[in-house]
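Thread: "does anyone have the structure for this chain?"

Original post by V.I.:
We have the sequence but no experimental structure in hand. Need at least a predicted one for the grant figures.
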Amino acid sequence: MKRACDSCIKRKLRCDGGHPCTRCQQAGVQECRFLKPVLKRGPKGSAAAKSNSATLNGYIALFEESLYAVWPIVDAACLSRRLDHADQDIEAYVLASALSAATASQLQLPVFGSNSKIDAAYLASQTVKGRSLYDYREEPSLDAIRTSFFLHVYHATLLKYHSSMIFLQEAIAFAKLLWVRFQEQQDGRREELDTLLTLLVSPPGHDDLSIDYPIHES
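Reply from O.Q.:
Generated one for you, tokens below.
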């Protein structure tokens, strides 16, 4: 069964499934990859995803209203749009779940919306479960950095400092790997990465944290 490559999924184009595919060859894409998993479809899964999506959008709106000024690292409107295609963009669902877990714990919300089962702990578990569907460590992304950071915030709020620091260090490791790649490829997303780097080097509540870090110089 043919499947779309990551680039065609991102650009919402029909892919012929070649290695490399015709679209990537025509666009001059250097690496045509097939890393993003396609989630199984079905009545039960679709209903659950739809229910979770509505709740996640609610948390995203709360984040934008109450916490974006502290952590300006996620475009709320863009993430909400990506959730409409979570069956092809698992990273969006994972990031939204982590963001929602951090938001729920920071604002001390036991539950949000009509589903009493979706609390901060459930959202954090969904993040970990979603990440198990793809190799996020071997192919780190800006979303992977954001997800690890929000898991850091969630665990810090619960006073689970060891887990919190592990996720923070994971986010830092991803940022270092991407910094080198972006420098080599002159990637236009370096500005986004710089914003994340600044937050990771001195996150709120960790003013004494000292990290040897290669900050991009413009």
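V.I.: this helps a lot. Residues 40-48, 205-218 have pLDDT under 50 and may be disordered.
O.Q.: and The longest helix spans residues 161-185.
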